[in-house]
């Protein structure tokens, strides 16, 4: 397909030019050019100096059948932060260089317009659901035009503002628009967008903007706000697998202690001590004192309720303040 599009874009190509453009060997290029003829594409070779390969009569055969919109959708999976396989993304990056000029710029923009972050906030890994205005916002990102955005925040308050769309992120089951506004860079949940009205004015895109890097910074900040508490602990090396499963990105692994255990830091919210209490066989919490005190209180509850003298009695919470 890439070779056919090259032939359509140029009057004539050589095997060496095809090999260089598509990062293949000249032998492979010649074989594939021959294969086009066998497949019924009207391609022929011109021998001698200045020779090469041409389409008969400047034919415009299109094996792909792609419209401009379909080309953009296809190349969304070729971006550096997308979830496509490396081989698939490499093939599409080669193909984009062979697209006709009207398709190429928007296909290249589409390749950098989307980031897929499969992990939802917390432990959710649900598939993204396409909200109402996703296509319109994606189109504005790719065409590089500002939009007048209607938005309803979490307090159900509606606003309108002009934004400069920079990229779209799929985070677990939710979609987000990353954009700049008069108040600086902002993130909008697409399912809260109530209207999208392109203004036709060009987006002012920072020269050094990278959607994947920007989203990592945004996600890290959100996670820090969601998990403001930190607990320090030590654990045997064989326990790290269990902790990674339980805490994921909230676990930071440090160095080794003198007795061979591993230092770790675990982030969480007000329920952090409760999460750690079930892992007493795997780690020892060393701080801060507030988390240790809370663990001790949980221990008192367990002993009072399930210990040999507890007999299932109700715990009144007065054992430890």
Task: Itemize the secondary structure elements and their pairings.
Layout: H1 2-9, H2 15-22, H3 26-38, E1 43-46, E2 52-55, H4 68-75, H5 86-96, H6 101-111, E3 114-117, H7 134-143, E4 145-152, E5 158-171, E6 174-181, E7 184-189, E8 193-202, H8 211-226, E9 229-235, H9 240-247, E10 251-256, E11 262-268, H10 272-277, E12 284-287, H11 289-306
Parallel strand pairs: 3-5
Antiparallel strand pairs: 1-2, 4-5, 4-8, 5-6, 6-7, 9-11, 9-12, 10-11
Helix pairs in contact: 2-3, 4-6, 6-7
Region (Disordered): 110-130
Protein name: WYL domain-containing protein
Organism: Cryptosporangium japonicum
Task: Summarize the structure in words.
There is one protein chain. By secondary structure, this protein is an alpha+beta fold. It has 11 helices and 12 strands. Strands 3, 4, 5, 6, 7 and 8 form a 6-stranded mixed beta sheet that branches. The longest helix has 18 residues. The chain is elongated, with a radius of gyration of 29 Å. The C terminus is likely disordered.
What would a concise description of this structure say?
This protein is of the alpha+beta class and 321 residues long. The chain folds into 3 domains: 2-111; 117-224, no CATH class; 227-306, Alpha-Beta Plaits.
Name its key features.
alpha+beta; disordered C terminus; six-stranded mixed beta sheet; single chain; four-stranded antiparallel beta sheet; Alpha-Beta Plaits; 3 domains; 321 residues; elongated
Radius of gyration: 29 Å
- List the total number of helices: 11
**Number of E strands:** 12
What share of residues is helical?
A: 25-40%
- Class of secondary structure makeup: alpha+beta
Low-confidence segments, given as residue ranges, are: 314-321
Main sheet summary: 6 strands, mixed
* N-to-C series of helices and strands: HHHEEHHHEHEEEEEHEHEEHEH
Shape: elongated
Keywords: Transcription, Transcription regulation
Protein name: WYL domain-containing protein
Region (Disordered): 110-130
Domain HTH deoR-type: 1-61
């Amino acid at each position: 397909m890439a070779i056919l599009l090259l032939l359509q874009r140029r009057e004539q190509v050589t095997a060496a030019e095809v090999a260089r453009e598509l990062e293949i060997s000249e032998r492979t290029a010649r074989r594939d050019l021959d294969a086009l003829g066998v497949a019924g594409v009207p391609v022929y070779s011109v021998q001698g100096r200045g020779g090469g390969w041409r389409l008969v009569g400047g034919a415009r055969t299109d094996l792909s059948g792609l419209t401009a919109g379909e080309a953009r959708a296809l190349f969304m999976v070729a971006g550096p932060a997308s979830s496509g396989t490396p081989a698939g993304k490499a093939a599409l990056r080669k193909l984009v260089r062979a697209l006709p000029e009207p398709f190429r710029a928007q296909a290249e923009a589409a390749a950098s317009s989307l980031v897929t972050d499969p992990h939802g906030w917390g432990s959710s890994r649900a598939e993204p659901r396409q909200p109402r205005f996703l296509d319109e916002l994606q189109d504005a990102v790719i065409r590089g035009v500002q939009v007048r955005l209607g938005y309803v925040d979490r307090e159900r308050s509606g606003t309108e503002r002009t934004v400069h769309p920079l990229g779209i992120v799929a985070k677990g089951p939710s979609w987000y628009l990353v954009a700049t506004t008069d108040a600086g860079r902002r993130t909008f949940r697409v399912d809260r967008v109530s209207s999208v009205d392109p203004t036709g004015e060009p987006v002012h895109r920072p020269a050094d903007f990278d959607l994947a890097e920007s989203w990592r910074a945004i996600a890290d900040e959100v996670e820090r706000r969601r998990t403001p508490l930190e607990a320090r602990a030590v654990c045997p090396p064989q326990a790290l697998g269990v902790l990674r499963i339980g805490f994921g990105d909230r676990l930071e692994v440090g160095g080794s202690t003198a007795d061979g255990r591993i230092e770790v830091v675990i982030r969480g919210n007000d329920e952090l001590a409760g999460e750690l209490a079930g892992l007493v066989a795997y780690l020892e919490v060393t701080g801060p004192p507030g988390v240790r005190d809370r663990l001790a209180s949980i221990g008192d509850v367990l002993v009072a309720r399930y210990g040999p003298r507890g007999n299932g009695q109700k715990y009144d919470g007065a054992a430890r303040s």
